[in-house]
């Protein structure tokens, strides 16, 4: 279910970036280019699989599957009016599964037996682990306010209306966590050719990017659930789509950041800010 949605999101990204750059984007395959993502998927998955000399072959093919599986599994947490499940510890599951994503990228870079892929994987690991700390501390803010770990309860409390800087810091951290521009250093085309996925082609490449887009959509959804007011499932979907479009606007509007400034932003700006907010919150709550 989520794979076609991620494929359509790639079309939306190419269309939005096209109009930002005063061009049309995909428009030849089907009406308005609507069949383009599916033709790309068919082309990628039927391509010949190339076995790299010197690579760890089992882990090389396991890494895209792992990343794709984790990206699909975490969607088990989405809140819905039509769902019969109720997960009491949804936030803890989110912390655990999102922390495992870095292993898929590290495996993809290390098992490729390529210097560019390994450098991209090291960049991604340092960036992802750093901003996981930021995300965790920011998420403690709504958790302390609502005293609830289930995502099904958060949509009733618009935290962003209470403290807007926290939600802005959260959105910037999600850009870095999902390796999106202007923080896409794991896929630095200008210096790393393509980063951790340089040796992947065909189905493996498609699974890695489907996992990335699934994570973007999930981060958009959890942003709406925690920081915005959502009364039912359809409003949640529309708000998540709007937040995901901001991911595309940031790619079209900003150039790539410098890596050392990105790490300084996390450890010297976001970390002190989020800890200060938590200290103030504990004072007011008590």
From TrEMBL:
The chain crosses the membrane at residues 58-78, 84-108, 129-147, 153-171, 192-210, 216-249, 261-285. One of its GO terms (biological process) is aerobic respiration. The keyword Endoplasmic reticulum does not apply. Its EC number is 7.1.1.2. Pfam families: NADHdh. GO terms for cellular component: mitochondrial inner membrane. Keywords: Membrane, Mitochondrion, NAD, Transmembrane, Transmembrane helix, Ubiquinone. It comes from the Eukaryota. One of its GO terms (molecular function) is NADH dehydrogenase (ubiquinone) activity. It is found in: Membrane; Mitochondrion inner membrane. It is a multi-pass membrane protein. It is an enzyme of class 7 (translocase). It catalyses: a ubiquinone + NADH + 5 H(+)(in) = a ubiquinol + NAD(+) + 4 H(+)(out). Belongs to the complex I subunit 1 family. This is NADH-ubiquinone oxidoreductase chain 1. The lineage of its organism: Eukaryota, Metazoa, Spiralia, Lophotrochozoa, Mollusca.
């Amino acid at each position: 279910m989520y794979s076609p949605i991620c494929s359509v999101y790639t079309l939306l990204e190419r269309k939005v970036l096209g109009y930002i750059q005063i061009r049309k984007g995909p428009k030849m395959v089907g009406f308005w280019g609507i069949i383009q993502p599916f033709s790309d998927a068919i082309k990628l998955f039927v391509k010949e699989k190339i076995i790299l000399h010197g690579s760890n072959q089992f882990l090389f093919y396991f890494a895209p599957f792992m990343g794709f599986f984790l990206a699909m599994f975490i969607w088990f947490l989405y809140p819905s009016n039509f769902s019969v499940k109720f997960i009491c510890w949804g936030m803890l599951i989110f912390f655990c599964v999102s922390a495992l994503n870095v292993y898929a990228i590290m495996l993809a870079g290390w098992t490729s037996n390529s210097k560019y892929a390994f450098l991209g994987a090291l960049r991604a690991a340092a960036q992802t682990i750093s901003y996981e700390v930021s995300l965790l501390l920011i998420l403690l803010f709504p958790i302390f306010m609502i005293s609830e770990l289930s995502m099904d309860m958060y949509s009733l409390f618009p935290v962003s209306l209470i403290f807007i800087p926290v939600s802005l810091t959260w959105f910037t951290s999600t850009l870095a966590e999902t390796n999106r521009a202007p923080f896409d250093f794991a896929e630095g085309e200008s210096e790393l050719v393509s980063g951790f996925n340089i040796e992947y082609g065909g189905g493996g490449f498609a699974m890695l990017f489907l996992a990335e887009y699934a994570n973007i959509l999930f981060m958009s959804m959890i942003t709406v659930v925690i920081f915005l007011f959502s009364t039912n499932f359809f409003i949640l979907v529309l708000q998540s789509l709007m937040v995901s479009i901001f991911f595309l606007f940031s790619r079209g509007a900003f150039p790539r950041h410098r890596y050392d400034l990105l790490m300084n932003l996390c450890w010297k700006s976001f970390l002190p800010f989020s800890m200060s907010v938590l200290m103030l919150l504990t004072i007011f709550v008590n």
